[in-house]
Specification:
The complex is a heterotrimer. Chain B is an all-alpha fold. Chain B folds into two domains: 38-145, no CATH class; 155-344, MetI-like fold (Orthogonal Bundle). Chain B is 78% helix and 2% strand. Chain B has helices at 5-17, 28-39, 45-98, 104-117, 124-136, 153-188, 193-206, 210-224, 231-234, 240-275, 278-285, 290-328, 333-343, 346-374, 376-379; strands at residues 142-147, 150-152. The longest helix of chain B has 54 residues, at 45-98. Chain C is of the alpha+beta class. Chain C has 19 helices and eleven strands. Chain C has helices at residues 3-17, 21-43, 48-53, 174-186, 205-210, 213-220, 224-228, 242-246, 296-332, 334-349, 352-362, 369-378, 382-397, 399-406, 411-447, 458-467, 470-473, 476-504, 507-510; strands at residues 82-85, 90-96, 99-110, 118-122, 125-126, 136-142, 153-161, 167-169, 254-265, 270-271, 276-280. In chain C, the strands form three sheets. A five-stranded antiparallel sheet of chain C has the order 2-3-9-6-7. In chain C, strands 1-11-4-8 form a four-stranded antiparallel sheet, with no helix packed on it. Chain C has a two-stranded antiparallel sheet with strand order 5-10. In chain C, helix 2 (21-43) crosses helix 18 (476-504), helix 13 runs antiparallel to helix 15 (411-447) and helix 15 (411-447) runs parallel beside helix 16. Chain C is elongated and about 115 Å long. The chains are: A alpha/beta, B mainly alpha, C alpha+beta. Chains in contact: A-B, B-C.
Chain lengths: 319, 386, 511
């Protein structure tokens, strides 16, 4: 195990809109080791889903990768032609668990067909062989293999989510990106899915990026946590450290906003103000307009990620 | 109950810009996607088809009843004058034979006889009912004046129907191919030159009477360019298959030009809606080749509304088509209607109205059934969806 | 909705709408159309619809004449319509015993390769009571001098009576033709051998012509107008061969004089106010004429009124009715909703044009404006009602409506305060988008000859053209303008509708 599963360096992805570029992913770097789960958290619109799609090499139009590098299993994928990306990288090396509540499944195809598509296009398997494999994975995620013959509308939300997970794992990719897989499921199903993913992580030794806005879930599943704010990673470190000793004021505020059972909190905190407009982000630290500790320097210069502890980084002038 | 919000919206938007010569019927799609599910919880597909058919037949019967109620008046006027002229004729014969004019009683008696013969002594509603039942069971009888060289209405309509079908299926097939192709292409690149051209074209043709376009075609290709002989369109009948095909060329061209823009635009709208769906992005992420994404995932998911729209388009263009046939002297149902109108052949008109009603009603059933067939959410009992 | 809110929302709407290029174009064009429609009676005359139905009013117009500007594109220029009233004429009154003679003269500049098609004299009014007192008309044409031609004056009519409301159409008079032949004879173009000149008069010349078959056939096909405005001699002053003069005449350009002599008994009064002399063009005005001589441009202008009236009346009524039925259906729910929906679907399955034809026939075969609007509304409300119902159903489920109901708001209040205002934007766009359909329906019915002849509609103009075989005869000016007008009005409303839809676009539709 010499290479990391995923290495991202100085990645930039901007949306080129008619009103100017939107810096959705701005100079992001991190590495993901094999068998590791990186939790990616932040408010809505901070660019975490954009990052997920960028890692697949398919930023949502009008987005474009304008710099940096993404190495999957040691192979650079930025700049690869679309055709190669499609054939050799997507789903083969890096796959995605979509939100089941989304319309992620085509209503006019059977579950089985949608599962085996990658097997047919990438591996050139024939239908029966592919179906057999799909059924194996359905069993793995705890579903009746017979549902390959069903249509998506016949499944419940939790079942759909399991199918989507199975589909993502089918090709045994190096990296799996889970994009809010539990959002919009009810609490019990949410717990089931989290348990399933924990189990799969152990059984299959998955390398995974888990994107969510729900920090409490991340504590459950991830080894490392990255906090994103306005297109940048503001804090990155082992889960416990980030969770219990947050270094960045934004992380602190974010964690304070989670209701906790065991601690006595008078009232839930919230972060005043709005996430910045990424068309025209504030100068200096992007969090400065909302930060209670903002200093003069925060308004002028952008902080770099600094190691505050072993493997624990944060970008803040306070540190 | 499922609301295919997206499909419904696209269809709605598409339809509004579309040209249907007569009043548009925008939300039938919503109705289609709502009602069958509601109607047929747990109904099998076969049962559903049967249910829709029975439903259609009932609607058809009611439509015939309504039409008959109106037609009976027209038929009455015609029959009354028929009775009068027959009696006058008889009186003349009587006067010649007997040398004296008939008495008033005699005339009254003959009038009564003929009125009874034609059923004019029956109350209005009774005649309407008889007329309805006769029409409904294809007992159309003879027209008083000959149309298309025959008194037999069934024969008149049969020959006209075949020609109409020949003309319109040809045209519609072309329209569907061109419309689908261009629609899918422009949905791939919204805002491109092709896309904008199609939007403008659709808007332009929305307000263009199809039959007027036909007149322009004759002016251009027959009169000014002289590519086709004038007699082809100044006469109804043509000899030989070659001439028939030649005669078909201009009306087909007219229909295609008039309709393909609108259909391409509808297809585009529905496709663009589908292309924004998450499952398209998922398919791309899975590494499905782009061609398969568009012609497989997107087109297949769009097929139910597209096909429904195509069928509604057909129904919508029916009225324009009737007049287009008149302009081109194409001996189909429209031209037959025109001739019947000129000759006041009431029974022929009634039979034609019935045929048009059949076409409309069963096209709608076909649209519903195809929709249900193509969309598994409708085809397979939809209880699980929400 | 309070007035201030209303003003505010109108202002915001306008802010958005301003940026819609298509919408603004549509709006400007719509205003133009409305101005034309309202202004038609003032721009022309209010009695046009009455005149439109009678052939008499158009007697001075050429039939099936192309637009005058076609001259710019053809190798030969054709005469345009020229009309003279008494004010354009020189009038001389002579008393001769018990008779009064009015000598009217006018000059006409003939600068065309193809001369006028006819000269029509009409509108003379006298109070003569007895047929013997009816004014007598004589007419002569004074041609420009031509080398080798002895007599520049050509009698057209030696005597003809002109009662009130009658017209003289020179081109169709045998008398005129004989005068022309006689004049050709006098000038040595028409030769009648072996007959002493003293025996030949305008009245009997035809008899001598008949003896020569070739000549007779030539004369039978002669267009006397072209001959009387044509050249008789070549550039050297030698008479041209007869075939050239009669069959392929070349026009003699220049200033012509027309002298009309009207003789009436002195006790009879003659009124010249409506008197008119027309040199009937081979081309006419902006858009030519139809087979009855009616100017197409006039029909197009007046057709705007009916098109707008029908389009707007049908669209507004059917959309409002549709919304009313849809909202009621949604609000009532249960069996009432079910019944209304079944009825709506039933109406939708009726084939529209055949039903319209049937209704027109039922109401006597030619329907007037009100009936037509009524019929089109009957078949026009279903679409809107379906949309309105589904939108109303969604609104009904929304929390604030439930809250309003929980607070005890009445049904009417919920419907009018919460549901209807949200449907209004949809209604506006829908109205605009329904107009083309209504106009097309009207055009279709008119084309089939099922609308009242008291209306001037573009559909009827196309019907007239179709009966005239305009397409096959190549009378493009009878075919293209009315259809273009229909499409144009349709396009204006589509532009408006699409822009309105974009701007007002109710949240519900894209929700």
């Amino acid at each position: 195990m010499t290479t990391n599963a995923l290495e991202v360096k100085n990645l930039k992805m901007y949306y080129f809109t008619s009103r100017g570029p939107v810096k959705a992913v701005d100079d992001i770097s991190f590495t993901l080791k094999r068998g590791e789960v990186l939790g990616l958290a932040g408010e809505s619109g901070c660019g975490k889903s954009s990052l997920g799609f960028t890692l697949l090499g398919m930023p949502t139009p009008p987005g474009k990768i304008i710099g940096g590098s993404i190495k999957v299993d040691g192979r650079e994928i930025v700049g690869l032609p679309e055709d190669v990306l499609r054939k050799e990288i997507r789903w083969e090396k890096i796959s995605m668990i979509f939100q089941g509540a989304m319309n992620a499944m085509n209503p006019v195809y059977t579950v089985g067909y949608q599962m085996i598509e990658p097997l047919i296009y990438h591996k050139g398997m024939d239908q029966d062989e592919a179906l057999e494999r799909a059924q194996k994975y359905l069993e793995l995620v705890g579903l009746d293999p017979e549902i390959v013959y069903r249509y998506p509308h016949e499944l419940s939300g939790g079942m759909k989510q399991r199918v989507i997970i199975a589909t993502a794992l089918l090709m045994e990719p190096t990296v799996v990106i889970a994009d809010e897989p539990t959002t919009a499921l009810d609490v019990i199903v949410q717990a089931q899915i989290i348990n399933l993913m924990k189990r799969l992580k152990k059984e299959l030794n998955l390398s995974m990026i888990f994107i969510t806005h729900d920090l409490s879930i991340l504590a459950e599943i991830s080894d490392k946590i990255a906090i994103m704010y306005a297109g940048k990673i503001v804090e990155l470190g082992p889960s416990e450290k980030v969770y219990y000793e947050p270094a960045h004021p934004y992380t602190q505020k974010l964690l304070a906003a989670i209701p906790r059972l065991h601690e006595d909190v008078d009232r839930l905190e919230f972060i005043p103000g709005q996430p910045p407009n990424l068309l025209n982000p504030p100068k200096g630290c992007r969090f400065n307009p909302r930060c209670p500790y903002a200093m003069q320097i925060c308004k002028e210069q952008e902080p770099e990620l600094k190691e505050v502890d072993k493997d624990h980084y944060a970008a803040c002038w306070l540190l | 109950m499922f609301i295919l919000t997206n499909v419904y919206i696209c269809a709605f938007f598409g339809e509004n810009y579309l040209k249907f010569n007569w009043q548009v019927k925008p939300v039938r799609l919503a109705w289609i996607s709502n009602v069958p599910g509601g109607d047929r919880m747990g109904m099998s597909f076969g049962k559903y088809v049967a249910y829709r058919t029975v439903n259609a037949i009932i609607i058809l019967f009611l439509a015939v009843l309504l039409m008959s109620a109106l037609f009976t008046k027209l038929a009455t006027i015609q029959l009354e004058s028929q009775v009068q002229s027959t009696v006058v004729q008889e009186a003349r014969t009587y006067a010649q034979q007997h040398g004296i004019p008939p008495t008033k009683e005699w005339l009254d008696q003959r009038t009564k006889y003929w009125e009874h013969y034609y059923g004019l002594d029956q109350p209005y509603w009774k005649r309407t009912w008889r007329y309805t039942v006769d029409t409904f069971f294809f007992k159309w009888g003879q027209s008083i004046v000959p149309v298309f060289g025959t008194h037999d209405i069934k024969q008149q309509i049969w020959s006209a129907l075949l020609r109409t079908i020949l003309l319109f299926t040809t045209a519609e097939i072309l329209v569907i191919i061109i419309g689908l192709g261009l629609g899918v292409k422009s949905a791939q690149k919204p805002g491109s030159l092709l896309d904008r051209t199609i939007s403008i074209l659709a808007m332009l043709t929305t307000s263009l009477p199809m039959w007027w376009l036909g007149m322009l075609m004759i002016l251009l290709f027959v009169v000014y360019l002289g590519w086709l002989p004038i007699t082809l369109y100044s006469q109804v009948e043509v000899n030989g298959v070659a001439n028939l095909l030649k005669k078909m060329s201009l009306p087909v061209l007219t229909i295609v030009i008039n309709l393909f823009g609108g259909w391409a635009w509808t297809t585009r709208n529905i496709m663009i809606g589908t292309m924004q769906e998450d499952f398209i992005m998922v398919a791309r992420a899975k590494g499905v080749p782009e061609r398969k994404v568009i012609y497989g995932h997107a087109l297949k998911a769009s097929a139910p509304p597209i096909i429904t729209m195509i069928i509604f388009g057909l129904i919508g263009s029916l009225s324009g088509a009737i007049i287009t046939e008149i302009v081109f002297n194409w001996p189909g149902m429209g031209r037959l209607y025109w001739q019947a109108l000129q000759m006041n052949a009431v029974k022929t008109m009634m039979a034609l109205n019935y045929m048009f009603a059949i076409l409309t009603v069963f096209s709608m059933v076909l649209a519903d059934v195809l929709y249900a067939y193509l969309d598994p959410r409708v085809r397979i009992g939809a209880a699980a969806s929400s | 909705m309070r007035w201030v809110d209303f003003k505010d929302s109108v202002r915001r709407f306008w802010e958005d709408f301003k940026h819609q290029k298509a919408g603004i174009t549509g709006l400007i064009l719509l205003i133009l159309l409305v101005v034309l429609a309202i202004g038609a009676p003032y721009m022309t005359s209010p009695d046009v619809p009455v005149k439109w139905q009678t052939g008499v009013a158009w007697i001075t117009n050429p039939k099936n004449a192309p637009p005058s500007w076609e001259n710019y594109f053809t190798s030969q220029t054709r005469a345009v319509q020229a009309e003279y009233t008494i004010t354009n004429m020189h009038v001389q009154t002579i008393k001769n015993g018990t008779y009064t003679i009015y000598k009217l003269s006018l000059t006409y500049n003939m600068k065309y390769d193809v001369p006028p098609a006819d000269i029509v004299v009409m509108g003379l009014h006298s109070n003569a009571t007895n047929p013997k007192q009816v004014p007598q008309v004589q007419m002569a044409l004074v041609r420009p001098p031509e080398k080798g031609v002895k007599d520049n004056r050509l009698n057209l009519i030696s005597q003809i009576t002109l009662p009130n409301n009658n017209a003289i159409q020179v081109a169709h008079l045998d008398q005129t033709r004989n005068h022309v032949l006689y004049w050709l004879y006098l000038n040595g173009v028409l030769k009648i051998p072996n007959v002493p000149p003293s025996m030949i008069t305008p009245d009997n010349i035809n008899m001598f012509v008949m003896t020569n078959t070739t000549l007779y056939q030539m004369v039978a096909a002669m267009d006397s107008m072209r001959v009387m405005f044509g050249r008789l001699t070549d550039s050297n002053g030698n008479p041209l061969p007869i075939e050239k003069v009669i069959s392929t005449p070349q026009s003699l350009k220049g200033t012509y004089g027309l002298v009309i002599t009207i003789t009436v008994p002195s006790n009879v009064k003659v009124d010249f106010t409506n008197f008119k002399v027309a040199f009937v063009g081979r081309t006419y005005g902006l858009l030519g004429t139809d087979q009855y001589g009616r100017p197409i441009a006039l029909g197009i202008l007046w057709g705007t009124r009916v098109a707008l009236a029908i389009g707007l009346a049908v669209a507004i009524t059917s959309v409002l009715i549709g919304i009313l039925i849809g909202v009621t259906s949604a609000y009532l729910g249960g069996w009432a909703d079910e019944a209304i929906q079944r009825f709506t679907e039933f109406m939708m399955t009726l084939p529209v044009l055949p039903m319209l034809i049937l209704l027109s026939l039922y109401f006597g075969g030619r329907v007037n404006l009100t009936q037509l609007v009524f019929f089109l509304v009957i078949f026009g409300w279903m679409g809107t009602s379906k949309v309105a119902r589904s939108m109303a159903l969604q609104i009904k489920e929304q929390t604030y409506v439930e809250a309003a109901r929980a607070l005890g708001a009445s049904t009417g209040r919920v419907v009018f305060k919460h549901i209807v205002p949200q449907l209004l934007p949809y209604a506006f766009a829908s109205i605009a988008l329904s107009v083309p359909g209504a106009i097309l329906s009207e055009a279709g019915l008119s084309f089939l000859g099922l609308t009242s002849q008291n209306l001037i509609t573009w559909g009827q103009m196309l019907n007239t053209a179709h009966q005239n075989g305009a397409t096959i005869n190549g009378y493009w000016w009878q075919v293209i303008p009315p259809g273009l007008a229909i499409s144009f009005v349709g396009l204006v409303f589509v532009l408006l509708g699409v822009s309105l839809d974009t701007v007002l676009n109710p949240r519900l539709k894209r929700a």
